[in-house]
């Protein structure tokens, strides 16, 4: 049976794993992550969600750990020019952002891999990237930012981790029971984790009418959560619990399958 959603947490393992360098699509943007990690370790403290919010980087939002911004573009060429500019700025900052370039926009994700979180260096580069976007006439689209995670409700996370790691060609990150799974190639941005059944939880849920082993966590920015909930309810969903808000809300689809909308905790 379906068990209660866990409280969303930041996962350093997702960002300390060896991932593909998406920025390498831009000429000169490829960077040695090991050198960047050595440069950062011990010199910076990981910022809290409230500290990131107070930094006032309006184009950027924190989702499940890192900060992210998306800049819509008119076409692929405009996006490529922007990515090259980001690459030059990243090299000067001795940083290695994750960059996704499509025909409709550029998405940039920032986190310091060596310390497992967002630090002052990430905030500084975020500001510089926003300056480059303004110079290129690009405006950020914060409402569309989202990160999906998938959870398997099981008391046998160790066994499940080995199986799904083999199935997906992934690797356990070793944070949660059995180890969260991350994609070392960077192709799959979502995270797979295991939730053990818990009793006497702070946020108990009513019994689900539908047997369910998997559920989806949709991470959105703190200022987009209510809009996303309203849209889901208008599309036929129901609110099961908001006891853990503003950390997460539990909803059901029209057939009774449950999912969470999650947001980082700020002031």
From TrEMBL:
Q: Which key words tag this protein in UniProt?
A: Lyase
Source domain of life: Bacteria
Q: Which GO terms describe its biological process?
A: tetrahydrobiopterin biosynthetic process
Which reaction does this chain catalyze?
(4aS,6R)-4a-hydroxy-L-erythro-5,6,7,8-tetrahydrobiopterin = (6R)-L-erythro-6,7-dihydrobiopterin + H2O
Q: Where is the Glyoxalase-like domain?
A: 150-262
Enzyme Commission no: 4.2.1.96
Task: Cite the Pfam families for this sequence.
Answer: Glyoxalase_6, Pterin_4a
Q: Which GO terms describe its molecular function?
A: 4-alpha-hydroxytetrahydrobiopterin dehydratase activity
Q: CDD domains annotated for this entry?
A: PCD_DCoH
Q: Which family does it belong to?
A: Belongs to the pterin-4-alpha-carbinolamine dehydratase family.
What is the protein name given in its UniProt record? Answer: Putative pterin-4-alpha-carbinolamine dehydratase
The record lists the organism as Brevibacterium aurantiacum
């Amino acid at each position: 049976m379906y068990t209660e959603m866990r409280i969303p947490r930041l996962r350093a393992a997702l960002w300390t794993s060896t991932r593909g360098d998406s920025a390498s699509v831009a000429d000169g943007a490829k960077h040695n992550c090991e050198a960047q990690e050595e440069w950062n370790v011990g010199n910076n403290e990981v910022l809290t969600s409230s500290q990131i919010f107070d930094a006032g980087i309006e184009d950027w939002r924190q989702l499940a750990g890192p900060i992210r911004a998306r800049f819509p573009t008119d076409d692929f060429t405009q996006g490529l020019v922007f990515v090259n500019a980001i690459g030059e700025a990243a090299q000067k900052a001795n940083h290695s952002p994750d960059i996704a370039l499509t025909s409709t926009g550029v998405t940039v994700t920032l986190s310091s891999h060596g310390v497992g979180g967002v630090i002052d260096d990430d905030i500084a580069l975020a500001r510089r990237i926003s300056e480059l976007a303004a110079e290129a006439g690009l405006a950020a689209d914060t409402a569309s930012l989202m990160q999906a995670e998938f959870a398997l409700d099981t008391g046998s996370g160790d066994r499940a981790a080995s199986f799904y790691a083999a199935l997906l060609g992934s690797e356990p990150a070793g944070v949660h029971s059995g180890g969260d799974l991350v994609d070392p190639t960077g192709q799959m941005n979502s995270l797979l984790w295991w939730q053990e059944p818990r009793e006497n939880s702070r946020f108990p849920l009513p019994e689900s009418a539908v047997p369910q082993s998997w559920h989806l966590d949709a991470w959105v920015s703190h200022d987009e959560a209510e809009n996303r909930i309203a849209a889901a309810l208008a599309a036929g969903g129901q609110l099961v619990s908001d006891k853990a808000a503003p950390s997460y809300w539990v909803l059901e689809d029209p057939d009774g399958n449950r999912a969470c909308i999650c947001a980082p905790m700020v002031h």
